[in-house]
Amino acid sequence: MGEGAPVWITRARPGALATADRVAALGFTPLVDPLLTVEALDVEIDLSRVAALAFTSANGVEAFARLSGARDLPVFAVGRATAKAAEAAGFVSVASADGDVEDLGRLIARFASGLVLWAGAKEPAGDLVGLLRGRGVMANGIAVYETTERAPSAETLARLDGPSTALLHSPRAAQALAAILRRRPAPGLRVLCLSEAVAAPLLGLKDLGSVAFASRPDESALLELLSA
After folding, report:
1. Residues 6+ apart with CB under 8 A from 11
2. I need a surface site. Which of 73, 75, 81, 152 has the fewest CB within 10 A?
3. Is residue 1 in some structural domain?
4. pLDDT digits (tens, 9 = 90+) for 83-135
5. Do 71 and 137 fall into the same domain?
6. Both 26 and 58 in a single domain?
């Protein structure tokens, strides 16, 4: 895929805008048309017995930060982007697993002491709380945001008739795209995914150009695939 070809940014705002800036800096033309929207939930957070916080997305950090002013608890983040979001929100002690939910579970099990509160999506892609409890870690979870699907524009869908690239950051977005592609083949579309788990819903689809996933689950590795 040559530079200047359209790159469809499917992740929810505001993260989509940051990704678009990085894509443009690489010489590609970003097309921001999210397949998902993120809505914060109005919930009450009890931190009375909590010893540490766990986040599996920047959206979780941002939603939690709107609901609670607590910034003194140590934070365990799934990856660099989530860790950066926690630092930007004012948390002073942030550790990153630089991986996926399994990696985060191992990090927490190794260093956490006391009850860990995970704050994230209403329908999470993985069960961090269950994983931690299975490792003997006291853990609870609270949904602080929900993700809903949205339809892309007719203009975006029309671009699928020619060579193009789509970036996928989550299994939920991949599921939404897979549903679209079952109705509308896109043999010229190259789909680049943040991880193997993100790519899974697209594997086996017919009339799709190609599917690839990053060597590690962070956006820098994902964007490296653009020039591959």
Report:
1. 19, 34, 35, 36, 167, 168, 169, 170, 173
2. 73
3. no
4. 999 999 999 999 999 989 999 999 999 999 999 999 999 999 889 999 999 99
5. yes
6. no
Question: In a 3-state reduction of DSSP, which class is residue 27?
Answer: coil
pLDDT of residue 2: 46
* Residue carrying structure tokens 């630089």: 98
Q: Is residue 21 part of a domain?
A: yes
**Domain of 135, in residue numbers:** 39-147
Rounded distance between C-alpha atoms, residue 3 and residue 1, angstroms: 7
Q: Which residue, 82, 115, 147, sits at the end of a domain?
A: 147
> In the chain, which residues have pLDDT < 70?
1-4
Could you say which of 110, 126, 147 is where a domain stops? 147
Q: How close are the terminal C-alpha atoms of the chain, in Å?
A: 8
Q: Hunting for tokens 């990696």 — which residue is that? A: 103
Cβ(126)–Cβ(101) under 8 Å? yes
69 plus 29 within the same structural domain:
no
**pLDDT score at 3:** 52
Q: What is the pLDDT of residue 1?
A: 46
Token pair in block for residue 80: 């660099």
Is 51 exposed, middle or buried (CB count within 10 Å of its CB: 0-12, 13-18, 19+)? middle
Residues 105 and 192 in one domain: no
Listed in sequence order, the residues at least 6 apart from 152 whose beta carbon sits closer than 8 Å to its beta carbon are 8, 10, 33, 35, 180
